[in-house]
Amino acid sequence: MKEMIQRNLGYKTISLVLAILFWLWVTSQGNSQTLDRDPTLTLSLITKNTPANSMIMTKLPSVRVKTEGYNPSINVNELFAYVDLSGSEPGEHDYEVKVDPIPNIKIVEISPRVVTLQLDTVEERMLPVTVEVSGTPANGKKPGETIVKPSEVNVRGPSSLLGEVDKVLVEVSVAGANETLQVSRPLLFRDKNGLAIFGPDPSVETITSSPTSVDIIVPIVAKELESKRVPLNATTTGTPAEGREVRSIQVVPNGVQVYGETEALAQFNALTIGSVDINGLSETRTYEISSDKVSLPEGLSYGSRTTFSVIVEMGSTIQDKTLYDLSIELKNLPGDLVLEKPLPAISVTVRAYPEILNSLTKEQISLWIDAVGKTAGEHTAKVYWHLPAGVEMISVPDITYTLKAKDDPPEEPENPGNPSSPGNKPVV
Prior knowledge:
The protein is mostly beta strands. The protein folds into 4 domains: about 1-30; about 120-220, YbbR-like domain (RNA Polymerase Alpha Subunit, Chain A, domain 2, Beta Complex), CATH 2.170.120; about 225-315, RNA Polymerase Alpha Subunit, Chain A, domain 2, CATH 2.170.120.40; about 320-405, RNA Polymerase Alpha Subunit, Chain A, domain 2 (Beta Complex). Helices cover about 10% and strands about 45% of the residues. The longest helix is centred in the N-terminal third of the chain and has 23 residues, at about 10-30. The protein is flat and about 120 Å long.
């Protein structure tokens, strides 16, 4: 047998190589149509220079191109017809179909020569994620409150279709589940009738989201247990860096679902997940705390293990600033009175965070006194104010002013040259 195999081994080897080469040539001929075989080509239509934040809402047709000439080296799969969308605005427009020059080939006819395309503006919206749970868990079990991360996603698409999105949906089945499910699922987009939303070409994805999928946690708990959502809070220890202070402490999520007997739940209204160390902290920081490190009262439990995020927002300490020469307005002055002298400009001291104080101007502060019910004479009044958001008034002086009747003659100054004036009596 061995001798039979080795007999004429050289010829057999050459025959095998030739057979492989012939097969490769036949295969390449089937995949690479050349221009010398078919003078009429069917090309895919593509777009060039599509304006930013725009999308084609028309299904692009195929284009038939009649040619003359000979060039066997050109692969039809590498040729495209195209339309140039430079400078296009949203709406319906006509575009000329073009084909780039092909060496040694004359383009006789392009059909269609002009196509009508609809352009739409691409927009974005933040939308909540809805989870639809289906199926029945194992005997004696029930699904708890579903947790979805993130709970909102950024949805992007043409305005005409984005307006139809009524629900961003994710589906999960708990059929037969005996323990908590933690899965990742893609997002689906549904209109108000619960139907999928497609563009003009169903094979092209027109509505997208970031992220494209979300993580789902469905607690599977005993049927006899009740549940309750309680708020979360956290505290800090330590002293921030010099000149810095804690602006806010936020726990994400802001609440957690706990399970237990009705009596135990009734006495449990909030959960402190602990303290985070901010000693020397100067910038905003996020701390991660696992739920297995946060104890619950006896008889209560989490539906599933999760992680709490404590976001400590840091900023510069609050500061004071004095603004000078601010004008004051007199409001509700009785119609028969006038000011004897203009109100003086004053200085005030305000308090705010440095980033607010740095851009604060005198024109942003309104000051006034109220003369309602006042009579002629001297008055000392409180100054009222209106300040921009985030600014606190620290000190403002009271104002003393004098009102007089409109018909009162102006006071005449003493005239040293008038011998009849008091104080200018002749000396005897």
